[in-house]
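A student in our group prepared the protein record below, which I am reviewing. What it holds is a sequence and that sequence's fold in token form. My question to you is simply how this chain folds and whether the tokens agree. Do not assume that whoever made the record got everything right. I have pasted the whole thing underneath without changing anything:
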Amino acid sequence: MTVREIYDAIDRIAPFQTAMDFDNVGILVGDENVGVTKTLLCLDVTPRVLREAKSIGVELIISHHPVIFNPLRTVQPQNIIYALVQSGIAVISAHTNLDMAYPYGVNDALCRKLGLQNVCGILKEGETDIAYMGELPEEMTTEDFAAHIKEALGLSAVRCTAVSKMLRTVAVVGGAGGDYALAAQAKGADAFVTGEVKHHEAIAAQQAGLVLYEAGHYHTELPYRERLKAYLDTACPGVEFIVSESERPPMETL
């Protein structure tokens, strides 16, 4: 199977044309005609991940965050691009198109990790849902759900607005999704889980009585790797898909 055929398999569940305008997705490094027997899945192509990829002999890396500079956002230093080219490893980046994909996308994976039921899309970007909402199996307090998030995502801490209430409906946007919080509340969410929240977004949520949880960009997106692997294992027979074991969050809680 070639790099292009794996790209096409991803495109069937997360069309690359649905990516947001600022984004840089697709086959960003390498030859689309190269044959692939091993693929590594990660969030970011860091030097640590590249060393892992080379050590296990993969021909392709699938990353969530783009591996090449784009006009609006600096994503990776140029030296990682040179190292990839020298190694002969291709890269497919599936970012905002995979955020919005359902099933097998980033927000789908986060909903599943949190154990939400009756999940549905509630907020759209273009024709695709960027935010999803589901129900907890039973009501939880603000504090109990915080403990649940920490256990589900492997966190030592989670931040939330100082709103104490019973929760049943939870909306999610993996990564940096704080700007969707109040719109999700308007759709019926008692709580909103995302990775990054700006100061003014937290103030607005608190004043609106919304329990807004900030669980880290890295940790809210990490579950996508297993979900995408499950799909690709079936869609791309003959290719071994490996979830990165070396990947680490760029920041730690001390």
Summary: The chain is about 35% helix and 25% strand. The two ends are 44 Å apart (CA to CA).
